[in-house]
Amino acid sequence: MDAIRKRVKDKLTASRKYACEPCGTLFFDKCNLSIHQKTRKHLDKIEGVEKKLKRPANNAKQLANVASKRHYCGVCDVACRDTAILRIHMATPRHIRKAAAAAATATME
Questions:
Q1: pLDDT tens digits for range 37-49
Q2: pTM of the shown model
Q3: 73 Cβ partners below 8 Å, 6+ apart?
Q4: d(CA 28, CA 75)
Q5: Around Cβ 7, how many Cβ atoms within 10 Å?
Q6: Rounded to whole angstroms, how far apart are CA atoms 92 and 109?
Q7: Which sign, positive or negative, has the C-alpha torsion 60, 63, 69, 71?
Q8: Structural domain boundaries in the chain
Q9: Torsion over CA: 52, 56, 61, 62 (sign)
Q10: Is the dihedral of CA 55, 57, 61, 62 positive or negative?
């Protein structure tokens, strides 16, 4: 069974002619490669930005997101690539809940 999987994988890899060297991904056509090259994942890889699974809210991260000119929600510690996505985030129940909790904490102090 492993030999069959290896053959199929080799065949698929051989038919993927277009490669993104920094990311190590292969594509069947040039169009998909150019779409990939515009994604945040690819751009972060080129800039050397590493994505962490757990994102603790700290001042250094906030400063880094502001410096990279991303749109940033300080309440939720979320960085967005443009204003439209930030607006969508601001309308989510999670953001509204966190903003209300932050406002309640601020008024108690």
A1: 888 888 877 777 6
A2: 0.38
A3: 79, 80, 86, 89, 90, 95
A4: 41
A5: 10
A6: 26
A7: positive
A8: 1-51, 55-109
A9: positive
A10: positive
